[in-house]
């Protein structure tokens, strides 16, 4: 990361920020529509969420408090690096607590704690175009969005039902925003889709490699595509979190040994820790298991 | 001295532009709700500090701008050229931003750039000074960014504003977005907002 040695506030130069800021404002005015922008090289590889990083860098000010999560966890290499990057180039305060953050940059999860007015959730998006796997040509997908031609998307979901007896898509499950644009919620589990609906927080999406920014303003309808005879359903977990006992949260499977032992724990590490600090405990949530 | 001739830009350009941007972002994400807009730098008649802040924050050589008659006079074009490099255009249909000074006539919304079906983002944002953000005819707003409805009562809008806005809304996702400024506050009205009453 030599390029960081001599940097601007939040790394990006002012002209780049202006261009990204203009794109963000259009995205907010047209919920779910993908605004093209000229993505910049960032001192990290594309897979690391350069789109989200550029959005965060363009909105962030000296009073912000930043949280970064990767698959729900604050402590993965990716999340730690991005947090350290902004602490260095913007001297911004960072946190792992959802409630304390003004900006939360995320890869693949929405925090379990209900987001509040004034918070901004920034998603790192690898493939922003929900129609891409149906139609590889950008000119065609633009036309489809312009004409609200979403029939193919429904056909694809219905093929799922014909083949599997249900809609098999569990990640990046397409949503319709404010009754107009079909949008990719980024590869979050469909478990998180209902959290996007009428959230009090502003949701911004940045795709670096694909040069797209899109947004969902607060209090905006976000509805998962479905069929009358096959309504949208989120994943259900049979047991609560083994560490904190939480129900109705998204769980990851953790392998305990090579004899098939495993447990299910909160994917949102901050949520799990806060519950355990409050004295809540699951079946494996002994002091030793936590350590 | 150039800075005297053209008026000062921001006192602290990086910090001030970020602060102004967040106010505008909050304004468009919460239509109809006034947001505090800090302005820095000298004001240069007839260009008020808050209008100048938004101009400095968002426009540059990539964004042609339209100026209302009072702004076309005096040194404002010098300020624009020196601080932003934005080309000034006479036709609002070619402008990314249309800046309207207090009391000046607005361009008709439909005469601005409304974007295209495939690129509705390629449209004009109108930034207009009004005498006050409250106390005018009462309208109620609904749409993204609003829980239920939101009161909207700015003074000094064009007389047929409600009609022009409903025509603008009918073009969605095409259409213009609007920022209203009075004193040290800004209100946003994105194209997604509907006037449901008034
Ligand atoms: Zn847990």
Overview of this structure, please?
Chain A: Keywords: 4Fe-4S, Iron, Iron-sulfur, Lyase, Metal-binding, S-adenosyl-L-methionine. Chain A: It catalyses: alpha-D-ribose 1-methylphosphonate 5-phosphate + AH2 + S-adenosyl-L-methionine = alpha-D-ribose 1,2-cyclic phosphate 5-phosphate + methane + 5'-deoxyadenosine + L-methionine + A + H(+). Chain A: Belongs to the PhnJ family. Chain A: One of its GO terms (molecular function) is 4 iron, 4 sulfur cluster binding. Chain A: Its EC number is 4.7.1.1. The complex is a heterodimer of chains A (291) and B (198). With 291 residues, chain A is of the alpha/beta class. Chain A folds into two domains: 2-224, 3-Layer(aba) Sandwich (Rossmann fold), CATH 3.40.50; 251-290, no CATH class. Chain A is built from eight helices and twelve strands. Chain A has helices at 14-29, 50-59, 77-89, 138-146, 151-164, 193-196, 269-277, 287-290; strands at residues 35-36, 65-70, 93-94, 103-107, 120-124, 175-177, 181-183, 202-207, 212-216, 222-224, 251-255, 262-266. A seven-stranded mixed sheet of chain A has the order 1-9-8-5-4-2-3. In chain A, β6 and β7 form a beta hairpin. In chain A, α1 crosses α2 (50-59). The longest helix of chain A has 16 residues, at 14-29. Chain A is globular and about 55 Å long. Mean pLDDT of chain A is 92; it is low at 1-5. Chain B is an alpha/beta fold. The mean pLDDT of chain B is 93. The interface between A and B is large, with 42 and 39 residues. The site of zinc ion has 8 residues of chain A, from β12 and α7.
